[in-house]
């Protein structure tokens, strides 16, 4: 509590910019002593899997913006990745899942309390924001460098005056910070705290959700995800999947999905820990779209590039579980994601087999080929009637959906050929799409784009029509 008060008093005395600046100066003095400070910022490439999985990325993962949150006395939504300066009043809006922050307002204590009460009713909670995490500082730094460039000289001068008037020597501030024991936490320390928060029976549901929400940010990094294992937190997350609270199911899936993504160690432990069964139960039972969306995200991360899990998935009837999502009302937004997953898994195996023909002496390749030979996804897909389920999605209006479905139809063509050749609806749809994209491709061409997006779609439609003749 004393931390909080001191920080607030600093914030009140100095303007916020100065506070941030001093924090940055301060940290640049001590960063040599902090082992994990030089964190790589989360790169785009970390978010993309090899197949450029877009549909999962778009709302499962946060957009990357190196930004600082500029507080006012009004509640404002804190966007993902924004650094929140210490000492602000932060709350989580449970209905939207968004964080909101503002200056603590002593003058309006009454309305504050009222707001608080209202907040409780609306499902909003306060979050402690008294410490900078290393990410936050790093982001604040990046943003400040940028804004420093664009600021006009007049403003800069005014700022300098301001600083001179109110700013104390760095040394003094350093002492103050040291007194506050404010320092940059390593990822590991933050994760330990978050995991304890999630695991503590004293934590409220909202606090647990907030802890998972933050944890998700950290586990994108492969090493952090491995720490999850050594801390024994994977077990907690897997148990979260069958929590009685849907919101915990959702967020546990979210963290798992991020941790599993391109991380074989976590994939192996998760599958051995029974995560696959639990995810399938979530997908097979009555749950909200939000919960199923995240469970599908986690399932996808679990299966990609992990033939053993794919084999288990088929054994456990996972394909039927996914097919039932097509019968369930309100789950339409999951359909394209499911098709994309199947496409990725089918292509993954094909590419491996192709590679192995060029490189079949390599023992690792041999082992992989052996593992993938146990995954009989395509026969199961054909047998369970996916050919038509998938081609029916060509009726959807979005171009990128059609693109994904066309790719999948194309890859399944050899196996679904008989069905597709007899499918009059499909040939009618393809003819319609062809004329639509002929027009769009022509426009694209007129605008100078010879090998544009629509041309590509048109080509793939023509190829399918040709091969079905
Ligand atoms: C979670 O809490 C329980 C009971 O307090 C404890 O035994 C367990 O070690 C904790 N797990 C983790 C991963 O912190
Ligand atoms: C979740 O599953 C585990 C077994 O994996 C079981 O021990 C636990 O009681 C279940 N929790 C709930 C809330 O059903």
Automatic annotation (TrEMBL):
Residues 150-228 form the Nucleotide exchange factor Fes1 domain. The keyword Transport applies. Keywords: Coiled coil, Endoplasmic reticulum, Glycoprotein, Protein transport, Signal, Translocation, Transport. GO terms for cellular component: endoplasmic reticulum lumen. One of its GO terms (molecular function) is adenyl-nucleotide exchange factor activity. The keyword Endoplasmic reticulum applies. Residues 99-118 are annotated as: Disordered. Pfam families: Fes1. Its main location: endoplasmic reticulum. Belongs to the SIL1 family. Required for protein translocation and folding in the endoplasmic reticulum (ER). Functions as a nucleotide exchange factor for the ER lumenal chaperone HSPA5. This is Nucleotide exchange factor SIL1. It comes from Sphenodon punctatus (Tuatara). The gene is SIL1.
């Amino acid at each position: 509590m004393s931390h909080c008060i001191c920080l607030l008093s600093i914030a009140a005395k100095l303007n916020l910019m100065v506070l941030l600046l001093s924090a940055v100066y301060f940290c640049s003095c001590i960063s040599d002593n902090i082992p994990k400070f030089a964190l790589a910022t989360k790169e785009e490439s970390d978010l993309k899997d090899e197949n450029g999985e877009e549909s999962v990325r778009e709302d499962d993962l946060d957009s990357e913006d190196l930004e600082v949150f500029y507080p006012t006395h009004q509640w404002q939504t804190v966007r993902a990745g924004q650094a929140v300066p210490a000492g602000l009043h932060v709350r989580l809006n449970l209905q939207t899942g968004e964080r909101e922050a503002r200056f603590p307002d002593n003058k309006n204590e009454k309305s504050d309390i009222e707001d608080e009460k209202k907040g409780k009713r609306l499902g909003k909670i306060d979050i402690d924001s008294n410490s900078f995490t290393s990410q936050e500082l790093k982001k604040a730094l990046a943003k400040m460098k940028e804004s420093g460039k664009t600021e006009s000289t007049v403003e800069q001068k005014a700022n300098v005056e301001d600083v001179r008037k109110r700013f104390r020597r760095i040394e003094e501030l350093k002492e103050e910070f040291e007194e506050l024991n404010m320092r940059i936490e390593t990822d590991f320390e933050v994760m330990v705290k978050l995991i304890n928060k999630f695991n503590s029976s004293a934590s409220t549901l909202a606090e647990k959700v907030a802890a998972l929400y933050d944890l998700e940010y950290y586990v994108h990094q492969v090493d952090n995800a491995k720490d999850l294992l050594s801390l024994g937190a994977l077990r907690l997350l897997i148990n979260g999947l069958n929590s009685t609270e849907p919101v915990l199911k959702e967020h546990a899936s979210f963290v798992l999905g991020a941790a599993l993504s391109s991380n074989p160690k976590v994939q192996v432990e998760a599958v051995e820990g029974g995560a696959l069964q639990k995810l399938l139960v979530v997908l097979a039972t009555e749950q909200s779209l939000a919960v199923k969306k995240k469970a599908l995200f986690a399932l996808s991360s679990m299966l990609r590039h992990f033939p053993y899990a794919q084999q288990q998935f088929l054994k456990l009837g996972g394909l039927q579980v996914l097919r039932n999502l097509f019968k369930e009302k309100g789950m339409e937004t999951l359909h394209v994601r499911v098709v994309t997953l199947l496409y990725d898994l089918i292509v993954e195996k094909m590419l491996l087999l192709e590679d192995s023909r060029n490189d079949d002496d390599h023992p690792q390749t041999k082992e992989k080929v052996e593992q993938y030979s146990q995954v009989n996804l395509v026969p199961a897909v054909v047998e369970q009637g996916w050919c038509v389920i998938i081609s029916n999605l060509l009726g959807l209006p979005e171009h990128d959906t059609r693109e994904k479905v066309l790719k999948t139809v194309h890859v399944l063509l050899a196996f679904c050929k008989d069905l597709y050749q007899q499918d009059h609806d499909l040939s009618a749809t393809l003819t319609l799409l062809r004329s639509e994209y002929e027009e769009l491709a022509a426009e694209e061409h007129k605008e100078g784009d010879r090998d544009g997006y629509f041309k590509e779609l048109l080509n793939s439609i023509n190829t399918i029509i040709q091969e079905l003749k």
